[in-house]
Design a protein that fits this description.
The chain is an alpha/beta fold. The protein folds into two domains: 315 residues, QueA-like (3-Layer(aba) Sandwich); 98 residues, Beta Barrel (Thrombin, subunit H), CATH 2.40.10.240. Helix 6 runs antiparallel to helix 10 and helix 7 crosses helix 10. The radius of gyration is 22 Å and the shape is globular.
């Protein structure tokens, strides 16, 4: 079945409000970890056999006991920005402006975040009908002023012109001083002082997200030390999480749902590392020896990794087309727009049996970056991962428990070959905490979806 034909109603479950964690645990890595899949019972901790499914549970602090040595963890180092701004009008009414992403005139989020004096940003407006004309103002910091003016009305949002009177400050610094952390709506509470620290990973670096990559919230410096002692290494990619992560699927069929696009930023050196790994993995397969295990920490890391494969595959497809179907991997130089991943690319680019190997796709992407003198790959991905998807990069996923009828649950269904319900049933019956501040799971990739 093509994922377009899926009904989101088939990805529903009862999530009582009492199961949603509104606050984090005092210690990040004390959160529970459900381990699901072929390696689950290797932990020896509270193992359960639910038919053909293997489930065990432990805690994040013992993750080193669950993962094999020579594992590579891929984290998303994006940083949540204080994207909610509250402007009070002279009549006492409040207008909320939620900053989503920079206008298309900026090449990426980082350059827009570093803008001085003024910036143009795509936003949602709470109470938009109350703001008919004129500009809004916020006093912040040492008596500075941030001004917001409507620039353009879009289909479901607005372009807002922000200006501020401190020439030395970047927009990122203005948001830090004047804005509020955008907690998920299902917390059903106001932002508190502790959220400023706890709704960030300990390795957050690249400012630009409006939601945290929550799988990473459980990691601590002490846990990284334990993992390193077992030769479990880490690397970082960047995907800036957009408000679309909270967008419910309202369409009856997935074909009618438009997946949100998000900025990714990946170093060429990382792509080279991955390429070399898969070249070695292909050699190891012929020699029947083991290879490094790749685990995505979070659905955002997973979407970034899998997008790299499809960008390389699109480069190869363009080269083949321009070389009359021959397997030539040079000559053509498609634009970044032509190789960025759109929603249905993984299912419609070419027949499954004609797809390049992972090593070939990553080599093509690396060569394209060299051809264009790029040290960083900055673009958007709209990839949707749902049942029917075959994974190209990862061997497993660490993630939290997701909302019913969400694209994130579709991704979990894909990695488990549709067998996600026993895992969620177990978590609900065994006091796991759900959603952003909740517990998590390590899901080993079902071999049939590779």
């Amino acid at each position: 079945m093509h994922p377009k034909d899926l009904s989101i109603l088939d990805f529903n479950y009862d999530l009582p409000a009492s199961k949603i964690a509104s606050y984090p645990l005092e210690q990040r890595d004390a959160s529970k970890l459900l381990v699901y899949g072929a390696h689950a019972n290797d932990t020896g901790a509270d193992a359960n056999d639910t038919g053909a499914v293997q489930i065990s549970e432990t805690t994040y602090s013992r993750l080193d006991e669950v993962l094999p040595s020579n594992t590579l963890l891929i984290h998303n180092d994006t940083k949540v920005v204080a994207a909610r701004l509250f402007f009070e009008k002279e009549n006492g009414s409040t207008i909320e402006i939620f900053c989503l992403e920079p206008a298309s005139i900026y090449k990426d989020i980082t350059s827009a975040m570093l803008a001085k004096k003024q910036v143009l940003w795509g936003c949602l407006i709470g109470g938009a009908k109350k703001w008919k004309e004129g500009s809004l103002h916020i006093k912040y910091g040492n008596n500075h002023t941030l001004t917001a003016t409507k620039h353009t009305t879009l289909a479901d949002s607005y372009l807002i012109q922000f200006e501020w009177d401190n020439d030395a400050q970047s927009f990122a610094e203005v948001l830090e001083a004047a804005g509020n952390i955008p907690l998920p709506p299902y917390f059903n509470r106001a932002v508190e002082a502790n959220d400023k620290e706890r709704y960030q990973t300990v390795y957050a670096a690249a400012e630009g997200s409006v939601a945290a990559p929550t799988a990473g919230l459980h990691f601590t410096p002490a846990l990284f030390t334990k993992l390193a002692a077992k030769n479990i290494s880490k690397e970082f990619v960047t995907l800036h999480v957009g408000a679309g992560t909270f967008k419910p699927v309202k369409a009856a069929r997935m074909e009618e749902h438009e997946m949100h696009a998000e900025f990714i930023d990946v170093q060429k050196s990382f792509i080279e590392l991955l390429r070399n790994h898969f070249i070695q993995r292909d050699q190891n397969a012929r020699q029947h020896s083991s290879a490094k295990t790749i685990i995505a920490v979070g659905t955002t890391s997973l979407r970034t990794l899998e997008s790299l494969y499809w960008m390389g595959a699109k480069i190869i497809a363009v080269n083949k087309s321009q070389n009359n179907g021959n397997n030539a991997h040079n000559n053509a130089n498609p634009s970044i727009e032509n190789i960025s991943v759109v929603q249905w690319d993984p299912y419609e680019l070419m027949p499954q049996n004609e797809l390049p190997s992972t090593a070939e796709a990553l080599a093509a992407l690396n060569n394209w970056m060299e051809q264009n003198s790029l040290s960083r790959l900055i673009t958007k991905t709209q990839i949707i991962i749902a049942p029917g998807y075959y994974f190209k990069i990862i061997d497993g996923l660490i993630t939290n428990f997701h909302q019913p009828q969400s694209t994130l649950l579709l991704l979990v269904a894909a990695i488990t070959n549709g067998n996600w319900k026993p895992m969620y049933h177990y978590a609900l019956e065994n006091e796991f905490r759900f959603l952003s501040y909740g517990d998590g799971c390590l899901i080993w990739l079902d071999p049939s979806v590779r």
